[in-house]
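Priority: medium. Attachment 1 of 2:
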């Protein structure tokens, strides 16, 4: 029998003035109520109730204890209501961790729309390349590229990382347009600084690692894009990062007949969350929102 149940019994006896009435309300034997009240008094080391054959009244200590027990039960009821409200209506703090490139290119432009739809959700965003611990850091959703690292998590694919070889029209006009992967050896290439994505591969029946002699490295997707736009060289960029620039012509795809990747396997970007029986409404609506709005980011 929990201490909270003893408080509930105690409060009910005080408010009805009768153990038998409290037993009727809780649908338990009067002896069970009496036994739990005795345990409560024993725990406190003080008598709370003066019981006669006709009535039950409070001692001085009982009056003082009842003041606190009322508050405790009231707070408990309020806590239950608050949790139930969270389950019924999307509200509360939503903590999202995401890679810098995908976050800046895809997610951040959508945040205003999401907040207008769900004004009771407070959004906390973290843009980072480090691997985060969803449990330790109390993160609701992590947006990452690659494989699912833990079977206790669920990954929902948002977009394939379709990497395109690209450059600015000015760079191609001044340095020439390469027409075969072998010609990249003569060009300035912009690599992504992440250790696992710094090499370039030609994807086909066999993965061929390309030979690059002249290169510059930068540790962000948007950094790569700025270098490309400013005529620095060729880069492998995910389609979702340069979609607008391809449409307005500031970036041009090179050798579209080939499939390139900075990694030995084709990859995608996922929304990752913990495997739970009940997903909070705030997390559920955010995942649904991403699925509905992160569209058109695959070639």
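Attachment 2 of 2:
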């Amino acid at each position: 029998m929990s201490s909270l149940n003893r408080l509930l019994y105690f409060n009910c006896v005080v408010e009805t003035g009768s153990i038998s009435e409290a037993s009727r309300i809780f649908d338990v034997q009067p002896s069970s109520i009496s036994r739990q009240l005795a345990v409560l008094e024993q725990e406190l080391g003080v008598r709370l109730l003066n019981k006669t054959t006709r009535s039950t009244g409070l001692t001085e200590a009982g009056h003082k204890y009842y003041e606190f027990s009322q508050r405790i039960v009231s707070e408990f009821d309020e806590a239950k209501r608050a949790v139930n409200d969270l389950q019924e209506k999307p509200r509360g703090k939503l903590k999202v961790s995401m890679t810098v490139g995908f976050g800046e290119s895809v997610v951040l432009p959508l945040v205003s729309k999401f907040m207008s739809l769900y004004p009771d959700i407070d959004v906390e965003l973290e843009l980072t390349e480090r691997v985060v611990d969803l449990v330790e850091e109390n993160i609701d959703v992590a947006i990452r590229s690659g494989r699912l690292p833990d079977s206790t998590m669920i990954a929902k694919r948002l977009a394939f990382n379709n990497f395109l070889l690209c450059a600015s029209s000015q760079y191609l006009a001044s340095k020439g347009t390469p027409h075969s992967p072998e010609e990249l050896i003569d060009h300035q290439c912009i690599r992504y600084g992440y250790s696992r994505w710094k090499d370039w591969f030609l994807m086909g029946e066999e993965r061929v690692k390309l030979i690059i002699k002249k290169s510059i490295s930068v540790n962000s997707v948007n950094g790569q894009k700025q270098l490309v736009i400013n005529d620095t060289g060729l880069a492998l960029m995910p389609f979702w990062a340069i979609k607008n620039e391809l449409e307005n012509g500031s970036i041009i795809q090179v050798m579209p007949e080939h499939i390139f990747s900075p990694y030995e396997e084709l990859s995608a970007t996922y929304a990752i969350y913990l495997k739970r029986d009940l997903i909070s409404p705030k997390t559920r609506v955010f995942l649904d929102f991403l699925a509905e709005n992160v569209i058109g980011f695959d070639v």
